[in-house]
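Pasting as-is:
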Amino acid sequence: MTNYEKKILQALQEIEKTVKKLDDTLDKMENTDSKVKHFIEQERAIHEIKKIAREFHKIEKLAEKDAVEQAHRITAEAEQEKALVKIAMATEKLDTELANIGDDDEKVKSFIAQKELADQIKKILQLQPL
């Protein structure tokens, strides 16, 4: 059970206690004919229930905000994963190119290929904040 679910359950229990308290109070006042006292007790109970409902609403807002933040984190992680995949593909391509280049006569091509990979990685990282 999550923290929010516990708070919701607690809020519902508080409402139940308030209603029982009102019911008990009205039972005790059954012999009295004072409608004012009945009204005051009912208003107190309504006030308590409204107070609990406001707290419940705050809990719901926090739960929604947390869900939105979690969705943003998941999206950011997915974007980072895509960036890492692009880097891995570019690195694989460079490895393939370097395997085909000879040792002495094509060192310039090797350097250029490495430089291109570094530039591609920089571009990918600039697009994706880590």
